[in-house]
Amino acid sequence: MNVKLTKEQITAIAEAGIKVSQKRAENLLSTDAGLWAFSPEDLTLILRIANATYRAGVPVMSDAKYDTLYVRELEEQDPQSEFLASVEPEPVMESKTVALPVKMLSTEKAYTFEEIERWVSRLIKSANDINLDLSELNIRVTPKLDGYAAYDDGETLYTRGDGSRGQNITRAFDRGLKVAKGGQRGSGAGEIVIRKSYFEDKLSSYFENARNIQASIIAEKKIDERIQQAIDDEACVFYPFKLLDAWVGGCKEFLENFESILEDMWKSVDYEIDGVIAEATNSSLKSYMGSTRKNHRWQIAYKVNAEIAKVIVQEVIPQTSRTGKLTPVALLEPTKLSGATISRATVHNYGMVKAKGVGKGALVELVRSGLVIPKIESVINSVDPDIPVECPSCHSYVVWDGDNLFCPNTTDCPAQAENTMIHFFKTLRNVDGFGPRVVEKIYQAGFKSIHDIYEMNIEKFVEIGFGEKTSENLVTQLLASRSLEIEDWRFLAAFGVPRLGEGNCEKLLAHHDLNEIFKITIDEMIAIDGFAEISASTIHEGLKSIEKEFQLIYKLGFNIKESKRSELVSEQFLSGELIVFTGSMEHGARPDMEAEAKSLGAKIGKSVTGKTTLLVTGKSVGEKKIADATNKGVRVISENEYLGMIKKS
Ligand SMILES: [Zn+2]
Predict the structure, then answer these.
(1) Which residue has the higher pLDDT, 345 or 569?
(2) How many distinct structural domains can be found in the chain?
(3) Which conformational region is residue 42 in: left (phi greater than 0), alpha (psi within -120 to 50 degrees), or beta?
(4) pLDDT per position as a tens digit, 447-474
(5) Burial 484-523 (b: 16+ CB within 10 A, else e)
(6) pTM value?
(7) What CATH number should be reported for the domain holding residue 396?
(8) 144 noted as active-site residue
(9) Which of 95, 250, 405, 495 has the most CB within a 10 Å radius?
(10) Do the beta carbons of residue 103 and residue 312 sit within 8 Å?
């Protein structure tokens, strides 16, 4: 493989103070033999180059390759390496560094379950050392966000730098960057991240990866207007770690359910993640275990093993999405990767197919990490690719818009219509059975809208070729989707209006009734926090285009749960209560639940006293604790009872 460095990459390497000629750097990066062929010095040099270019938003290699190939090789060859001992240094940009308010350590990494088991045994051993009851030893697991690490002390936002000195990047907040989940400034360490779905939808045609966007948010130079829009849309946010949804439980539970915890974490956020972070929660254990120069001993990151394979492309076929965009799908020689056989992968867009020469016979490098769909990472041997001239579904001539090909036939393209229907049922989340094959069959039989499908009865389904049992089941599902309760924002999001995903629907419906949604003017929309002018007019236009279909479906009668209007929410429902939470909670991390209770007016206690009014018990709470509380006249309720109670507020 022949690597040619770009001008930006060369600048990034020079600015990081790495002394290497362009030719030597290119030679090192081009070497395709086993990594054992490199000396530790060469490996270190490659890693420093990778680091510098990564921080500048022009990476020379994927994260997966960096972590799982090069870092691991260096760890094996030279475990005492000074490079490995230092927190990955960032190149100094233009501004000078300032001392961080707290030291930001990096996290020890594990790549196998055995390493995790060893870490847990260390926790248990330390707990025994300090006579800590194992029921007090809980592990908190959060997704490991793959963004740009920063620290917010409420006044200044800092880069992590070398762990003790970073740079002042408060300008990111000056540019309108929000804290995730409506959180406050000053929440400590976190990551600047961008919503994955938003990146795919709106930015992937213009930026190769999220890294470039994060770099631009904090850079001194003028920000790209699309990135500014992403900030305004709250697609880019600063996500403090303490606001992340967490799994909390005991050691045994943690090890036994490791795989499923991992899977849940992966689904829990719409941001790039590259693993999970596990940490002990008990503060006396934490201070006993302490930290090394580099890591906290009570914390570990499990990075999902990425595997890389070289594969020949058999064919690239276009697929028309619900918005008309053509997605290039590469059919591959079946290849084993991370335990699964991979035979297809999507390519970014047709711009990339064209520019990189991805077509029949091309040799590509494929990366799959964990549960993530494999990506074509780079093209080793390119070919002259086939670029489609017509939509594979309706045969309209396709048109370029930026790096994307579009089918312009918005009214009569089967693929667009079918994918719109599939999106509807998928977003409702309470209907099964309306996947691609079923929907295609229904569409081809002449039922071309969601409303048409809802009008079908068992006889109709049988008539167009479904079996008796299936038909019955489909009708039952349709009825259920109307009788089961559904949030108004989810219902609206199901219509797939551009820029009106679940988050924006929630915001919109916190201020307006679902019935009035078509009467909202662009100005009224802009008045809501989080809607910029461009989004507002796109949404306005999109709503117009679905109004007729919406009304037809809405009139069928759904069991819609109205969002709480925001002006009504300020009730101090729990005022007068002194609550103690104990045991491991399933709903969220205990500190988050305590914060929530506080926001509802409650006071929080750490242990049960005569003044406590309510003891909320999570999992594995001893009987004695409960009996003691009851004796003191404290009301004891389970986590679920508590949740039921605050939901009514
Ligand atoms: Zn089409």
Answers:
(1) 345
(2) 5
(3) alpha
(4) 999 999 999 999 999 999 999 999 999 9
(5) eebbbbbbbbbbbbebbbbbbbbbbbbbbebeebeebebe
(6) 0.51
(7) 2.40.50.140
(8) yes
(9) 405
(10) no
Among 144, 202, 303, 507, the one annotated catalytic: 144
With bands split at pLDDT 50, 70 and 90, how would you rate the model's confidence at 568? very low
Residue 36 in tokens: 């054992």
> Is residue 573 included in any domain, yes or no?
no
Render pLDDT for 367-385 as a digit per residue (tens, 0 to 9).
765 555 677 878 888 999 9
Quick one: 499 and 420 in the same domain?
A: yes
Least confident of 349-353, 403-407, 467-471, 629-633: 629-633
Count of Cβ atoms closer than 10 Å to residue 6 Cβ: 11
Find the 410 Cα to ligand 1 centroid distance in Å.
Answer: 8
356/624: higher pLDDT: 356
Reply yes or no on whether the pLDDT at 194 is more than 60: yes
CATH at 629: 3.40.50.10190
CB-CB contact of 107 with 241 (8 Å): no
Tokens, residue 367: 């990366």
Q: Could you tell me where the beta strands, DSSP code E, fall in 21-102?
A: 97-99
- Pick the last residue of a domain from 36, 64, 85: 85
Domain final residue, candidates 58, 85, 112 = 85
CATH at 253: 3.30.470.30
Domain that holds residue 643: 578-647
* Interval between CA 400 and ligand 1 midpoint (Å): 14
* Together in a domain, 26 and 80: yes
- 418 Cα to the center of ligand 1, angstroms: 11
81 and 138 in one domain?
A: no
Within-domain flag for 566: no
Say whether both 444 and 541 belong to one domain: yes
Residue 517 Cα to ligand 1 middle (Å): 29
- Give 448-505 as a DSSP string: -SHHHHHT--HHHHHHTT--HHHHHHHHHHHHHHHHS-EEHHHHHHTT--TT--HHHH
Local structure of 140: helix, strand or coil: strand
Examine the pLDDT at 129 and tell me if it is beyond 70: yes
Among 118, 87, 179, 147, CA closest to 274: 147
Report the residue count for the chain.
Answer: 649
Does residue 286 share a domain with residue 166?
yes
Residues with CB under 5 A from ligand 1 (ion): 391, 393-394, 407, 409, 413
DSSP-derived secondary structure for 255-303: HHTHHHHHHHHHHH-SB-EEEEEEEE--HHHHHHH-B-SSBBTTEEEEE
311 and 289 assigned to the same domain: no
